[in-house]
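TEACHING EXERCISE
Course module: macromolecular assemblies
Task: Read the component lines below, then compare them to the predicted structure of the full complex.
Student: A.B.
Group: 4
Components provided:
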Amino acid sequence: MPLLELREITKVFPGVLANDRVSMRLERGEIVALLGENGAGKSTLMNVVYGLLTADGGEVLVDDAPVKIKSPRHAIDLGIGMVHQHFMLVEPLTVTENIVLGREPGRLGVIDFATARERVREISERYGLRVDPDAKIIDLSVGMQQRVEILKALYQGARVLILDEPTAVLTPQEVTELFTVVRSLVDEGLSAVFITHKLEEVVAIADRILVMRDGKVVGETTPAATDEIGLARMMVGRDVVLRIEKGASKRGATVLEVEDIHVDDDRGLEAVKGISFSVSGGEILAIAGVDGNGQRELVESIVGLRRPKGGRIELKGNDITHANARASIEAGVSHIPEDRHRRGLVLEFDIAENIILGDHRTPPVARNGIMHPKAITEVARKRIADYDIRTPSERVDAENLSGGNQQKVVVAREIGRNPELLVAAQPTRGLDVGAIEFVHRQIIRERDAGKAVLLVSLELEEVLSLADRILVIYEGRIVKEFAVADADAETLGYYMTGGGGSKIDKDAIPGTPETPATGGDE
Amino acid sequence: MSAAAEDRSTNRDWAAIAQKVGTPFASVLLAILIGSLIMWVSGYDPIAAYAALFQGSFGTPKAFGDTLLKSTPLILAGLGLAYGFRANLFNIGAEGQLFMGGLAAGWLGLVLAGQPWYVALPLLLLAAMLAGAAWAFIPAILKARIGAHEVITTMMFTYIARYFVSYLVIGPLKSPGQIPQTGLLPPESQLPRIQSLFSDATLQAMPFLKMGRAHMGILVAIVAAVIVWWVLKYTTLGYENRAVGYNPWAAETGGISVQWTTVKALCISGSLAGLAGAVEVMGVHHRLFDQFSSGFGFTGIAVALLAKNHPIAVIPAALLFGALSAGAGTMQLMADVPQKIILIVQALVIFFVAAEGIVTYFVKQRQKEATSNVG
Amino acid sequence: MNSKTIRVLSVLLALVLLVAFVPGCAKKTDTGTGTSDGTTPPKSTVKAAMVTDVGGLGDKSFNDGAYSGLQRAEKELGVEIKVLESKEITDYESNIDQLATAGFSPIFAVGFLMTDTVSKMATAFPDTQFGGVDEFFDPVPANVVGLNFKEEEGSYLAGVVAGLATKDSFDSKLNSDNVIGFVGGMDIPLIQKFEAGFIAGAKSVNPDVKVISLYAGNFTDQAKGKELGYSLIEQKADVIYAAAGQVGLGTVEACKDKGALFIGVDVDQYETVANSGDVMLTSMIKRVDNAVFETIKAVVDGSFPGGTIKVFGLAEEGVGLAPYHDFESKVPQAIKDAVEKARTDIIAGTITVPTAP
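Instructor-supplied answer key:
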């Protein structure tokens, strides 16, 4: 008897069929992975189950009894708990307070904290979810906060745990820990739905895999019966290359030279504490690290959006330390920003207007301050064709494009400008497999054309698949350098989380004379 | 790109245009309807009232001339506001820049007495633009450098401008006599009335040219609208203005200086407001006094809103407000409806235009939520 | 928000608007023609009209004053009347134009800002008669009469009241220092007439009185008016007369704060300045209504004084003092008698009031 069953769930948003007669079953003690690209309808489906959305058709059965789940509260009463991508915790409160919030033990509005803390401790011990019940949320790491969310669902009596993209915010170590926890929960008789678009996770954790595409279930399988390639094909609907083959790096002259730069963040605290490296033509240098370790400030100082307070940046021998963004573009630096909605695109502009941003002062787009619509259309159409942007016309507003197509517009603009140096900050964030493959190909093509590429990424998989050399950044310093052949996810993760200490340990850098941490090799 | 896809996109373009034009129209219609309701409840005949209103604003060449007369400063002030809004700047102090423009024209016109019109007119208009721009420059610098909000600073500068003009027409610039005002501008510094450009015979043959008080300022305003439209659409200046208005972060990433663009936008906005002041002084009053503007800088806000910040749409939007104002007298005379009713209709138009913005905002939020739920 | 919510909201909105606006304009239904009582007035073919300045009707000042003169003419002389309100300065000309085209004559224009317009329209409509309230024409067109006032005569009476009150102690705000004050808007001849009359009146009944005059430099800065009021009160003034437009409103505040009596100007400011009863001794009023009524009467009688500036003084009931209101019972009969005597003397010509200090 299934614990939870969905029959032909249909959900329509204006203009979008988000779920098209989706059916699934979840047995006791089972982990079902819901795999699909962004926009495939996974979260919509689970929001229906959790009572956040009302289905337009179909039915939900819990313990074989049809139910109309009206609200999250109702879902919780039925034993369905959900951990969202964005945590819904009250930061200044303690772990216990957050867990019991809404279900406080006690009478007449007086909360019995002693009992509450005891029950939290009891649950956390039973499932091996160790958390300090008195710690404030704000002081906890992201992984711990997620643990609190899970505890909260368990405290509320969840038998089914829905995890929406739970690994998106975690370090590799935390991912491993999460998997252990989920596995032990299932061993205790709970069931879990695991929403993700990451193939390797599905293979690692799921008992059964449901693949969704365009609102429909397009396949059901088990990890044993398939592999990542097969899953990717199901998910995208065509063959996908997950790890792009690339030839050996043909290194040219040094393009970017960064020397002992120090950069403050928005609050005036030093975020980059003396970083030096160089990037040569024909190589991809990746900077790996957990978010918030100074990557943003480093990138912004190189592309002219932030003034470094010390150090020196040179592009092909020219000092660009204090160049502004315009001078930086004119010097030959292109920048794929980490947040395409905030920094990458003017969403209200159409594709053509977006695709010339930065080139809008120079011929052929503009002469003497006057823009040439014909030239703009030509440039736009060429870049749309070259970079495979799926759109009926260059006059479609950027906000009406899918995330993948939006990123293609940014990539088309930045690479289409034919820069000396390409700075790509998290270029595939939030993209699905197909779009990731495209962006990766473009970056490698740049390298093979002899350009220098600086890649900043939180995704180890991406770093390992693209980079020729890898620097690990931690608390504003480079703590480790690898040639890609010497790196693996575990080691990288170890250094990313401060395992290497917060100072550069010169001796710890593997002796690879052709790839020193600083300086060129000519 | 297939032909079918092309078709779809043009259809969508048309739908978008229809939506853009439709909502302001609906706002105006709704305002007029509720206005009738109010008249009806108050015991007036709405049909007679609107008939009189139309008669007094478009019914005769002279009435149309009055509508043009009243629309002229509104077009220019509305353009200034719209240009600022396009850079996400709310130049609420256009009235102050308008006063400085009027001052520049009223003063320089006297100084340039004796110069031929082809020297005086361009110089006066240019001086007014510079004065308006200069008056916006300090708030602009404050905004760019220390982030002082332009709504506060331009408003404060409006007070300074008004008191400054008051002081000048009472003191140093006052012409002899009891009334605090400057002397009359020489004819060469006045914008001529449209009908004065034609011979009596021509006017006889084409009576529609007898547009009473309408003056050449309307031409200045229309040319300004076309130029602003062209600048926004076809120059890097306008492109950067719009980019900064929509998304300053992306603009900055694209190498656009947000601060400098802000300064330019406010100064251009101010120069258009200054022009509004100049045409009023040069075309209507022919002299400066401290009440020469009836809050055109503020009505310009409503004009820009109704026009959805489109420079060409500013013209019909200003004509609407001009017509409401021009027809009010006839409405009082023929239908006995107090002039305050017109103020209510104007307020309703503004209200619904603003309300439409609010509703659109919520609908957009809702759509965003919906799409983000499609996981 | 779904479409249903939007619909409900818009209906609510419409209701709110109705409730908010309808009472406001329902009150205005009496604007326009039509007699209010049942008495049948004498018939006349004269059609009199007025154009308000941008203040419009309801300003409790000259616009309303002129309108009540018009209404009186309608009732007593049987003339047809019409008011056009102006919202903008550019309305002046079109409103006058329309009234003249519709055959109205005389047409009254309120406020000096309409001087240019009236001159121009007088040329355009030579057969129409115009009355310019507070307007100064130079020269005066043949079909225009300027309606001006002998503010110095009214101010003289105000001076008499102030000069006697400061010696008296009928109110606790009065002191024994024998000082009174004057606040002027701008130091121009028009305002100096007020000052001169006020001083002459005060000295006539109290030769030792000290009169301190201060000018604000404008007619709008209320803060300045308050400051000047404080300054006068610090210098022991206990009765202050202000001829300074809105500046005077600040002076009223100062009088309320620091305890002094106030004499208003132009209209009965007891009626127009809220919560001023405890300091508002009286006001020097300009009877715009009388000036308008007398002019219409002259038109009806065929004696329109075109081409002249008609100056209305005490004799023509063009200026005067407002009632004492809250001070009616406190003000000693001696003061009231002195005011009455000054009035008759001025009318008789035994007193000539100076127009410059």
